[in-house]
Amino acid sequence: MADIVQDPRLTDRDLSAHQQTFHGFSKLILFAILHIGLVLGCLALAFLGNAPVIATLLGVGGTLALLAVFAIT
């Protein structure tokens, strides 16, 4: 990234577009990792913890919360 910033051939618009794309992709990857962790935790709670109703509510609520947080930022 430091080499791109020092490159005189790139305009500010190109650099800004690249940074926006990079941050959007980073948010997508973070969302995917957190959602996979949430789903795995809910599956463990449902099957190993024998609490499927709580796991379902936690999974749906957690997914909605993740969507809300990542939609705002």
Short description:
It is built from three helices and no strands. The protein has 73 residues and is mainly α.
For this entry, give a set of tags.
single chain, elongated, about 70 residues, about 85% helix, mainly alpha
Order of helices and strands: HHH
Number of contiguous helices = 3
Structural class: mainly alpha
Q: How large is the share of residues in beta strands?
A: under 5%
How many β-strand stretches?
0
Distance between the termini: 23 Å
The whole-number mean of residue pLDDT values reads: 88
What would you report as the Rg, rounded to the nearest angstrom?
A: 19 Å
What ranges have pLDDT less than 50 throughout 5 or more consecutive residues?
none
How helical, in percent, are the residues?
over 70%
> Which of globular, elongated, flat, extended, rod-shaped describes the shape?
elongated
Taking the sheet with the most strands, its summary is: none
Description:
- This protein has 73 residues and is mainly alpha-helical.
- It has a domain at 25-73.
- 85% of the residues lie in helices and 0% in strands.
- The protein contains three helices and no strands.
- The protein has helices spanning 2-6, 12-47, 52-72.
- Helix 2 packs antiparallel against helix 3 (52-72).
- The longest helix is centred in the middle third of the chain and has 36 residues, at 12-47.
- The protein is elongated and about 60 Å long.
- The two termini are 23 Å apart.
- The mean pLDDT is 88.
